[in-house]
Design goal:
It comes from marine sediment metagenome. With 53 residues, the protein is mainly α. The chain contains four helices and no strands. Helix 2 packs across helix 3.
Amino acid sequence: KKIIKLIQEDPSMDHSKIAEVTKKSQPTVGIRIKKLRDSGFLKINQELISHFF
């Protein structure tokens, strides 16, 4: 829940910052974000991402 809230507040926050704020390791944050994406709770806007690259 905390990861979702952080991403909602700042969608540009990267895994390392989320790990720092939640006091979890980067791999743990990455796994949890992947589970959230796979379950449909978190969706990535590819158009927005490609706009920056």
